[in-house]
Design goal:
Layout: E1 2-6, E2 27-28, E3 31-32, H1 33-44, E4 49-55, H2 60-72, E5 78-84, H3 89-100, E6 108-112, E7 115-117, E8 130-136, E9 147-150, E10 156-157, E11 168-177, H4 179-202, H5 212-220, E12 225-229, E13 233-235, H6 244-247
Parallel strand pairs: 1-4, 1-6, 4-5, 8-12
Antiparallel strand pairs: 2-3, 6-11, 7-13, 8-11, 9-10, 9-11
Helix pairs in contact: 3-4
């Protein structure tokens, strides 16, 4: 498994906690958030590589390299970072794809960098080509999230009017793209980026929900997209969110 993180966020709402470092490097329960995510994924998959994204004009690339050397030297996990302008989660994933290429050697987890899921194993146990990490919508109280639904055959529904209440989930910004679907994902994403970059990533481009268009387009191409219930999440947006990591 490869893990790709949209990790350029600076944690401006966290005040002194961020301390001029990427938000995902803030320490919680004795280690950075990114270490919690990597360790949780490693518990459930053989992790071969980690790709981070950082902002141009910052020392984020150096900070991530130092982090990997400190925590994972000798682990066999390869590491790479790509720097770019802060245009949102989708753009960060697009930059990372340039390092991965069209035919990755493993399935890929794409994740926002401040969300720790309880269960990543569900991302690998599925007949679907793409999985969207989610939690039951009733559990998503702290943050407004995009509502998605599950059809009787298990496929994801993006139209809120089609979502049956008992099958309603909240997108948490964690995705798994299987090797079988990555070429279509890469081509569709790249073509849209090259043709509509100014509209797609510069106007209202913030947030993990700006990825919806790519999943809808892949669905139209016949790619099977499902929901992976990750059970629960911890997310760091404000200092008062810290206790959530004790429960995950």
């Amino acid at each position: 498994m490869l893990l790709t993180m949209a990790s350029a966020g600076r944690g401006s709402r966290l005040g002194n906690m961020a301390c001029r470092r990427p938000k995902t490097l803030i320490e919680v329960k004795g280690k950075p958030i990114l270490a919690h995510i990597i360790d949780r994924v490693r518990e459930q998959f053989p992790l071969k590589g980690v790709i981070t994204t950082s902002r141009l004009g910052t020392n984020g690339a150096w900070q991530f390299a130092e982090f990997m050397e400190k925590h994972y030297a000798g682990s066999g996990i390869s590491f790479a970072n790509v720097a770019g302008e802060p245009r949102g989660v989708g753009y960060a994933f697009f930059l990372a794809m340039g390092l991965v290429g069209r035919t990755p050697p493993q399935d890929i987890i794409l994740s926002v960098s401040d969300v720790l899921a309880r269960d990543y194993s569900v991302l690998g146990r599925s007949k679907f080509d793409v999985l969207i990490g989610a939690i039951p919508f009733r559990e998503s109280r702290k943050k407004q999230r995009m509502m998605i639904g599950r059809s009787p055959d298990g496929n994801v529904l993006f139209d809120a009017s089609s979502v049956v209440l008992r099958r309603c989930y909240a997108n948490v910004g964690i995705y798994c793209v299987k090797r079988s679907a990555f070429s279509a994902f890469h081509t569709t994403f790249s073509d849209r980026m090259l043709n509509h970059s100014s509209d797609l990533f510069l106007k209202d481009a913030k947030g993990e929900y700006r990825m919806t268009w790519i999943w809808q387009e892949l669905q139209r191409q016949g790619i099977k997209i499902g929901i992976a219930d990750v059970k629960a999440i911890a997310e760091l947006n404000h200092p008062e969110d810290l206790p959530d990591f004790e429960r995950i």
